[in-house]
Amino acid sequence: MTARGRVLSVAIVVLVVVAVGTAGWLVRRSHRSVIAAPTVEIRAPAGARIRVQVLNGTKTRGLARRATILLRDRGFDVVETGTTTNGSDTTLVLDLSGHPAWAETVAKLFPPARVATRADSSRYLDVAVVLGAAWRPPTEPFNP
Description:
Elements: H1 3-36, E1 51-56, H2 63-73, E2 77-83, E3 91-95, H3 100-107, E4 113-117, E5 127-131
Parallel strand pairs: 1-2, 1-5, 3-4
Antiparallel strand pairs: 3-5
């Protein structure tokens, strides 16, 4: 192979690598914007204090903390966090206070999520969130 042929081969390989990398970046970027976009406008109702419990039902460490940050940024009062072994793939949002609209609002932050009603006689919590493995937290900006 001549020197010119080797240079041409290297140039083709470089172009293929750049094209594949760019295509992968575009796919990740478009996928992230589709998932993160719906959570921008979802907020707690004005004037209501909605007390939320967040439980990590996955093996991913720190997921309850990320969900707590998301909920507090949206105006919800997260009063308790923890882990549970009763997790699943889908996030479960429990209405504990008889306000299904509050649970539906919280569920919109954790797609895909399902909502269920459970009576809670203590009246300490309004909503409980059991995070499932399918939920991906929104990306956090880098703030050093």
